[in-house]
Design brief:
4% of the residues lie in helices and 53% in strands. It is built from 3 helices and 44 strands. Strands 1-37-36-35-34 form a 5-stranded mixed beta sheet, with no helix packed on it. Strands 13, 14, 15, 16 and 17 form a 5-stranded antiparallel beta sheet that branches.
């Protein structure tokens, strides 16, 4: 099915400014209202409906009536442990919370808090937290690097470690997994690059020193001796249970106890393969780059690799994202969108001239995609590309969010918040109760309330 382009609604930010509602429409909370800070790093709505807000100075929890600020946690001996900057909030399958901060890890079992500190790893921060099928908690640690080293000496060392929490105990795997690697300008600065659990319950971790597998007894390492390179950027399992690895010098597939390396394909040879993606037709796609620039998308089908270069994909710029959409595969770059029909790529509409801002892209609830370009916002469906809003080039869309009611909420960097639905549009600014017209995040809680995070607070739509 081909894609068509048409105009649905054409409005300008400058026009919407005059149609904004003057009375207050938002209840706003800042540090003066009890938050640990007015600068919000990120939010999390947990399975119980509690809204958690992370800041540089701790946590804030909204239970539906009021905010509770948490700057420190008292341990069993009554000693206060400061949280400091919150790095990550992770919720387990049973609803327990793990909060990673600069001061350590805090665990909340919905009854009391427990603080875990690790003086031996004080130079490391928590990059990721992962829960496996056995309810074990895996913590990925990365050592902070000094970017000036890259500028002064041309490279810097990155380092990573893995910890496991199970049955109330912590386990380190020093000497078994992890280590250090040198990176140069433009290369990823994370030592660990991916982690997942396969269908047999094994834990796979890719890193800049190779790929590791934990079979619940021991760690086994695979490096450049059997893989195309030590530097591995992605490991995944496809729907047919095959294990694939993307590396800085090609792709490898696990075949029994052996690895098959793919390095001769024109789009893969001598190029960095930095990501892998499986589409709805079970084709495996490899993203490749050379000299820090996008080289090609290569896909594996019927035992062969085929390469698609920029001229084949029919859009310019580096391909940043692939999305399955109702039987179609869409590719996004900084310059446009293209669709793959199973044999070749076709440019999607006429929107590639001004570019697509991939920081403002969201999946719709009706098998659609909302995207923000530099002058327009579009809705992509299986059969069409629809322009829903045109705005001034001086503005920039910072975030998009579709509510459970099908409303499209648009955050801008200067003009506040916009809402589009079937009846029309509305604009909300600091005149409506927002503390700032630069929108950072929009989300919905379990009661279907709309919340907006700005640079200086969080607001709830009344």
């Amino acid at each position: 099915m081909s894609f068509a382009t048409n105009k649905l609604l054409l409005l300008c930010f400058c026009v919407l400014t005059f149609s904004s509602i003057s009375q207050s429409q938002f209840k706003t909370y800042t540090k003066s209202d009890g938050l640990t800070s007015s600068t919000i790093l990120f939010t999390h709505v947990d399975s119980k409906g509690v809204i958690w807000v992370a800041t540089y100075s701790g946590l804030n929890a909204f239970t539906g009536k009021e905010w509770v600020s948490i700057k420190s946690i008292s341990d069993k001996q009554g000693r206060d442990k400061n949280l400091g900057k919150v790095l990550k909030i992770f919720e387990t399958k049973i609803g327990h919370l793990w909060v990673a901060t600069e001061k350590g890890i805090f665990y909340f079992n919905r009854e009391y808090w427990t603080h875990y500190s690790d003086s031996e790893n004080s130079e490391f921060y928590v990059k990721d937290i992962f829960e496996d099928s056995k309810s074990r908690i895996w913590v990925i640690l990365e050592k902070r690097i000094n970017p000036r080293d890259i500028g002064n000496i041309g490279f810097s060392f990155v380092e990573g470690r893995v910890q496991l929490f199970t049955n109330g105990r912590w386990f380190d795997f020093l000497g078994m997994i992890g280590g250090s690697a040198a990176v140069t300008a433009g290369e990823p600065t994370d030592y660990f690059t991916s982690i997942f659990e396969d269908s047999d319950g094994n834990i796979w971790v890719s890193s800049l020193d190779g790929v590791y597998i934990y079979d619940n007894r021991e760690w086994v390492e695979f490096n450049g001796e059997v893989l195309p390179s030590d530097k591995c950027y992605k490991v995944l399992q496809t729907s047919d249970n095959e294990i694939w690895v993307a590396s800085s010098y090609g792709v490898a597939r696990r075949d029994g106890d052996e690895w098959i390396k793919y390095e001769k394909s024109k789009g893969i040879k001598d190029n960095i393969t930095y990501d892998l993606f499986e589409d709805n037709e079970n084709r495996l796609w490899a993203f490749t780059r050379k000299d820090q620039r996008f080289k090609a998308l290569c896909y594996y089908e019927e035992g062969k690799w085929k390469s698609c270069f920029s001229k084949d994909i029919q859009i310019k710029g580096e391909i940043n994202k692939l999305i399955n959409l109702d039987g179609k595969l869409l590719a996004f770059s900084s310059k446009g969108v293209s669709v793959f029909d199973g044999s070749k790529w076709k440019s999607l509409g006429d929107i590639h001239t001004d570019g697509i801002d991939l920081t403002a892209i969201t999946l719709g609830r009706d098998n659609s995609i909302w995207i923000a370009g530099r002058t327009e916002i579009y809705k992509i469906t299986r059969s069409s590309l629809v322009s829903v809003l045109e705005f001034d080039k001086k503005q920039k869309v910072s975030t998009l969010f579709e509510s459970s009611k099908g409303e499209l909420w648009i955050g801008s960097d200067k003009s506040g918040l916009f809402m589009l639905n079937k009846k029309g549009s509305k604009q909300f600014t600091n005149n409506n109760g927002l503390t700032d017209n630069h929108i950072v995040e929009i989300f919905e809680d379990k009661r279907n309330n709309i919340w907006v995070v700005t640079r200086s607070g969080i607001s709830k739509l009344l």
